[in-house]
Amino acid sequence: MTKKQFYDFALMMKKDSNILFKNEAYHNSVYLAGYVLEGYIKIFLLDENNYRNHYGHLNDGKLLERLKTFNPEFFENSILNEDNINYPQNLLSDKYNINFRYEVDKWTDLKFCEKVHNEILKIEEELIRLRLEGILNDNN
User: Fold this and answer.
1) What is the pLDDT of residues 10-52, one digit of tens each?
2) CATH entry, 3-132, from 1.20.120, 3.30.230, 2.60.40, 1.10.3210
C-alpha cells in the first residue's frame, strides 16, 4: 500500500468511527479509532522501496518500536514522542488494547471515547505539519 492509501483508509475509518460515536455506539467507535491511528502510524513507517511490508497492529511492540526510530530529530518536538504532553495516552497505552474488542464494557465510557477522538484530531494536525515540512507528501 502507498502512504496515500493508508491515509484514505484512516479517513474512512475516522468517518465510520464518528458515525458510531454520534450514535452512542462507543465501543465500536473506539475500536475503529484504533484503526485510524494505526493507518497514520503506517504512513510514517512505509518504506517506499518495500511498500509491501506489514508492520503489524497498533498494540504490537514491533509497530511502536519502529515508529520511535523513524526520525529521532523529528520526534523531539512531535506529539508522538512519549515525553510530549499531547502524546496520545489513550490510543498508545494499555488503555487501548486490541483484545478489548471482545470485552464490551471496556470502551463504553463517553469521556474515554471523547478523549480518543480528540487524540485522532491531534494526530491529523501532526500529519498536516509533516506535509507542510515536506516529511510526508501525497506522491508516496
Assistant:
1) 999 999 999 999 999 999 999 999 888 888 877 777 665 554 5
2) 1.20.120
- Type of residue at 85: I
* Assessment of whether the complete model's pTM goes beyond 0.70: yes
Does residue 91 carry a pLDDT above 90? Answer: no
DSSP collapsed to 3 states, the chain: CCHHHHHHHHHHHHHHHHHHHHCCCHHHHHHHHHHHHHHHHHHHHCCCCCCCCCCCCCCCHHHHHHHHCCCHHHHCCCCCCCCCCCCCHHHHCCCCCHHHHHCCCCCCCHHHHHHHHHHHHHHHHHHHHHHHCCCCCCCC
Cα gap 17→8, rounded to integer Å: 14
The alpha carbon of 93 is separated from its chain's Cα centroid by a whole number of angstroms, namely 12
